[in-house]
Amino acid sequence: MMMEFYRRGRGVDKRVVLAVAGREKINSVIDEAIEISESLQMNDLVVVPVVLPQCSAPLGLDASVVNKEAIALPAGGNWISVISDEMEQATQQSIDVELEGFCIILKKNGRVGQRTRGINLRRMCGEVDERRSLGMDVSNI
Question: What is the pLDDT, as a whole number, of residue 135?
Answer without folding.
Answer: 73
